Structures are given as structure tokens and as C-alpha cells.
Amino acid sequence: MAVKVKIPTPLQRLTQGKEEVDGAPGTIINLVTELDKKFPGIAERISEGGKVRRFVNVYVNEEDIRFLQAEATVVKDGDEVSIVPAIAGGENAYSVKRYSEKRNILTL
Amino acid sequence: MGYVSGLKCRECGREYPVDPIYVCEFCFGPLEVVYDYKKIKKVLTKKAIKSREENLWRYKELLPIDGEPQVGLESGFTPLIKADNLAKEFGVSELYVKDDTVAHPTLSFKDRVVAVALTKAKEFGFDTVACASTGNLAHSVSAHGAKAGFKRFVFIPATLEASKIVASLVYEPNLVAVDGNYDEVNRLCSEIANKYKWAFVNINIRPFYAEGSKTQGFEIIEQLDWRAPDNVVVPCASGSLLTKVWKSFKEFKKIGLLKKLDTKVFAAQATGCSPIVAAIKQGTDVIRPVKPDTVAKSLAIGNPADGFYARQVVKETGGYGEDVSDKEIIDGIKLLAKTEGIFAETAGGVTVACTKKLIESGKIGRDEITVICITGNGLKTQEALTGQTAEMHHIKPNLAAFEEILKKIGK
């Protein structure tokens, strides 16, 4: 059993069309680095200089890593990691939805 | 014409041609319009601007269109009111209200952004415009779109208040009430925008649409006789307006219309939804999403798309942020009405009340020039004041009854 990583549509070109791939346990930033070995190019799309890009949201078991330990959040086998691009310039509909499911957020 | 050289990702700097796109394919950052300022500097002089009609298109070279303006030809150029009564109330020497409560045609600053968005939509060849909104944006897209001859799809949550629905429906757009909350409406619109070739003003036209907000800043400078204020207080929902007002000041400096620029930019939010101000006060760059709970519904974006950039502008300019309670918001609306005769929507109450706090705390100096941005009309959000206004006098139709009241008022 590995960490389950959900890949958003725009990045599935790099994962041969796979929506879900296996990831390595450890910190989130380590998981991203390891993913790049299997799927070259994916790390620079998700992160830059050891930080997750501002318009990419990462969730561990439905919780935003900004509310955990950010890039240093540790995941273990069986955890589910979702990578979700924020809708830049819009009202961040995807990310808001994820929050709203848990927190009942409204937005205009 | 044609003063736009392309689109550029604000995050990673990748460049794109002028297309109805809004997000960087590489890093998912937002795209921003890039202009050829050298070329603009040659044509956009004070003399050229002053010779033009008093609407937002008098700065057209700094707006992202290729041809002539086509929509909103009477929009913009709202009054900049010297607010002496409010200044006295606050104990400051010079205070101005940028009054978009009288924006044409739908009484909010959204008439600016939609004028630009729909002109761009015409240039791109779209025949249908759309938006997801609950208020000001829905009204503006419905109205501007009617005049410009677009098919219009306006998506709202089905639970919206009747008064807001009527103010869109009267223009006869295709008003689609979705069984779901705002998030779900937005998500649906993203899917629709992917499938149908429509101009969603705040999705695929967003980089162009947002530029329209700059006209509020251009007008402030021109109406202050080509000076920048010491302070400007801007209400924040997504944070876009604040960043664009600052961008407008910088652009006027860049093309030589403004000699000196050391304006401080201040963010105003409701305490019940203040992710941007919270980051400013905590001195962090991380905008933490919140669950909005405020009477200022037009500012209730818990996860603001431009929050990071708004925070950067405040930091860069040495400004600050303030937030106010629902009671302070209502008091702010009433104060602006009774001192300056301007009835603002709840967002205006936020701006007035935050300005008061910023002055009291010394963040805004009492001998400085301050402009506050009032972005929408109070007639749209009257329900916020129910039971909160002064009471009327109810009398029988005779003089004695009236004089009885007069005596009471005299007390």
C-alpha cells in the first residue's frame, strides 16, 4: 500500500493519462520530488524552490496542507493526496469547493 | 490602435498571445495584460485625455482593446466628491469620496469592468456573454449586454433574494437559477466555460475584465488635478480592485502623467470575512481562507483570488488593512449618507468605517489627502438597513398633529 495521489486533468498528460498514481511516504515536498522520477516534469509544475506553487492547492485526506505543516506535512501509506489547481483569477472555485465541503464556505 | 503586446503569467512570467485565456498552462498562475508603454506615452497626454468625452474610455490606450470602444460608452467618470463634512467628522483636513454609487448603467463599479470585458468579447467575436454572480456583476452584464446586443447567460444560486433577481431579470437575460450554493454555481460555470464558446466575463475574459478597474484610479488622479493622494482606501473582495487601482497610479507615473507617487494603499474588509486584512495584520504572505459571515455580502469572498497580490501592494506602498464589524458597517453607511448625502451599499459602509479606524489609529495622517473608494449604491442592499435607520413620524392629516411632532423634534 502506498500513498494515493490524485492528479488534476491538466497534469494527466505527464502521468500517461492516469488520474491516480502511487506516491512515496514522507513529506509532501519529498513526495513531489519522488513523483518526478516516475513522471519527469511534474515536480516543476507543482512546486518551485521547495515550495508548492501559489496557485496549486494540495490536500492530505481532504485537509489543505496550509492548515497542516505545509510542504513539511508528512504522509504515510494509505493517505490520500489531492493536487488541485486553484482557478486563478476566478473565485478559486475548485479550491473553494474543497473548503466548502468541510467548512460550508460561501463565495460571490 | 493596439497597445497591448500580449499576456503574461504573473507567477512564472511565461508569455501568451492575446486570447480568451486566463490561466498559465504551466504553473496555473493568473495572466496579466502587458502594454507597450513607450508607444502609449507618445499618444496619451493630458491634452489628449482632456479633449475626450467624460467616460472611462478617455484612457483607452491603457485598456486592453485593439479597436474602438464598443460597450459602456457612458460608463465611468463618476464624481470625486470633496467630503468636507465627513472630513470634519473624522478630524482630517482633506478627504475625497470616489463615488461609483452613480456609475452608469447599474450603479456599481462593475459597470467599468463589464464595459471593458464586453468590448473585448466583441473583438474576440463572441455572440454570448455570461457570468456567475449574485449581485452587481449580474446586473451589469445583463444591462451592458442588452445594449450591446449579446445573448446573455447569468447564473445565480436559486436561493437569491427576489429584489436582486428582479434587478437582473428586467434586462431579460437568460437567468439560470442553480440548485446549489455559490461554489457550486461557480464550478458549474467553469465546466460550461470549457464546453461552450461563450465569453464568461470573470472566467475566460478575466485578464481583460479586471483591467477595467484601473479606470477608477485614472479618474482619481485626473480629478485631483494630476496628483496622487497620500492615501487611498479600497474595499477588498477578491482583492482585484485594490491591485488595479495601484496599477493605474503606477501606469500614470510610468507614462509621465504623474510626477510624484508615494501613495499608501489601504485594504478595507468586514471582520466576518477578512482573509486579506488578517494576513496584513499578522505580517504574513499566506492568505488563509475563511468562512464568510458578514452583512457585506458583495465582499464575502472567503478565498480571494487576488488576495496575495493585494497584500503585496499594501506592503509595497507602506499601507495597512483594517476590518470592521457589521454594526460598524451599518454606522459607516449611515455616516456617509448623513454627512455627504451618498447612500452606499454595505461595501461602502466597510470602507467608511475602516477609514475611521485607520485615522484613529494614526495609520492615516490627519493632515494628509485621502481618497476612499465607494463602489456601489445602497439602494441595492436596503435590507441591510431594515430596523437600523432613523424612524419616520406618522401623523393624522391635520396641522395640530404635525405641530405635536415638531415639538418632539425640537427637543
Give a verbal description of the structure.
Chain A has 108 residues and is an alpha+beta fold. Chain A has one domain: Ubiquitin-like (UB roll). Helix content of chain A is 25%, strand content 27%. Chain A is built from three helices and nine strands, in the order βββααββββββα. Chain A has a five-stranded mixed sheet with strand order 2-1-9-6-7, with helices on both faces. In chain A, strands 3-8 form a two-stranded antiparallel sheet. In chain A, β6 (56-60) and β7 (63-64) form a beta hairpin. The radius of gyration of chain A is 13 Å and the shape is globular. Chain A starts with a strand and ends in a 5-residue tail after the last helix. The model of chain A is unreliable at 88-108 (pLDDT under 50). With 411 residues, chain B is α/β, with parallel strands linked by helices. Chain B folds into two domains: 4-69 and 110-209, Rossmann fold; 80-105 and 213-385, Rossmann fold. Chain B is built from 15 helices and 13 strands. In chain B, the strands form three sheets. In chain B, strands 4-5-13-10-11-12 form a six-stranded mixed sheet, with helices on both faces. A four-stranded parallel sheet of chain B has the order 8-7-6-9, with helices on both faces. A three-stranded antiparallel sheet of chain B has the order 2-1-3. The longest helix of chain B is centred in the N-terminal third of the chain and has 15 residues, at 110-124. The N and C termini of chain B lie far apart (65 Å). The chains are: A alpha+beta (108), B alpha/beta (411). The interface between A and B is large, with 31 and 48 residues.
